[in-house]
Q: What sequence folds into this?
């Protein structure tokens, strides 16, 4: 079976034709342009015209998605005009194909759970530490997603420190304000350290080591809370921060162990930029 996987982000839209074994037949990007739906429809129609054996379309997008109805509940100003778009209904009608839509973090998690770092496990939680903290939960092959508000598995907005740092979601103290690439940048600045997040992990001074320890402590709290909710077998950590895991994994495990209810595996994500497109394809495979 061949499907089209589409990964929609703030700067580019990536489209790939893949089969069940993730052989890539076509893979290309176009700059994100508006109206976004018009761009999407045009590109999709072009591809299925050239690849008439494509049987279904999976779409991963930035924003909150009502995955049951394939509707964009809310997208930030990163994708103006995207909020409210009935992607599944509209694209399904013009193509005559099955269309599924989900949030990009959920798609990335699906890619890791089905064909990536967690493919040997049934119960997976993914944390993507990038600009924000993206979350994805797959329990016994079921992707926890959607809801009328599109807000399920928004793990980055669970509260870590009540009354803490303000979050764009309008509340305070969310996980993603402490555990994400952007959060790390802020914490470095507040500590008055002269490093970028990349430099921090290799820096050999007490201030850097203290900050890394505070960071991995918060990450450990996040993981232990998630274990109490989901009793997952594995946590997959992705995003920019995961690339420096050689420098923080040991510290994390040391802090995490006493906080866990049961043993838990921690893995680093297998896919980097490909997770979104492969995960979108997995929505319909
Ligand atoms: Zn928040």
A:
């Amino acid at each position: 079976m061949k499907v089209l996987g589409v990964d929609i982000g703030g700067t580019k839209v990536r489209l790939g034709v893949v089969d069940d074994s993730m052989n890539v037949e076509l893979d290309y990007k176009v700059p994100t342009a508006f109206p976004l739906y018009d761009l999407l429809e045009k590109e999709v129609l072009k591809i299925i015209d050239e690849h008439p054996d494509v049987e279904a379309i999976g779409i991963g997008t930035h924003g909150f998605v009502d995955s049951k109805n394939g509707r964009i509940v809310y997208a930030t100003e990163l994708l103006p005009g995207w909020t409210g778009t009935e992607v599944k209904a509209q694209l399904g009608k013009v193509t005559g194909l099955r269309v599924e839509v989900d949030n990009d973090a959920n798609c990335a998690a699906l890619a890791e759970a089905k064909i990536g770092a967690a493919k040997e496990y049934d119960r997976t939680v993914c944390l993507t530490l990038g600009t924000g903290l993206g979350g994805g939960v797959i329990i016994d092959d079921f992707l926890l997603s959607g809801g009328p508000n599109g807000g399920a598995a928004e793990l980055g907005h669970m509260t870590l420190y009540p009354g803490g740092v303000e979050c764009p979601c309008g509340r305070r103290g969310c996980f993603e304000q402490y555990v994400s690439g952007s959060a790390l940048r802020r914490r470095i600045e507040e500590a008055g350290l002269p490093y970028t997040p990349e430099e921090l992990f290799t820096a050999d001074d007490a201030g850097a080591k203290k900050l890394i320890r505070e960071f991995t402590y918060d990450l450990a709290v996040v993981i232990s809370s998630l274990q109490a909710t989901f009793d997952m077998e594995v946590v997959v950590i992705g995003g920019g921060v995961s690339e420096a895991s050689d420098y923080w994994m040991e510290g994390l495990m040391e802090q995490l162990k006493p906080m866990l209810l049961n043993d838990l595996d921690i893995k680093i994500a297998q896919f980097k930029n490909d997770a979104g497109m492969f995960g979108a394809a997995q929505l319909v495979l």
Remarks:
- The chain has a mean pLDDT of 95.
- The chain has eight helices and twelve strands.
- Helices lie at 36-50, 87-95, 104-115, 181-190, 197-200, 206-230, 245-256, 275-282.
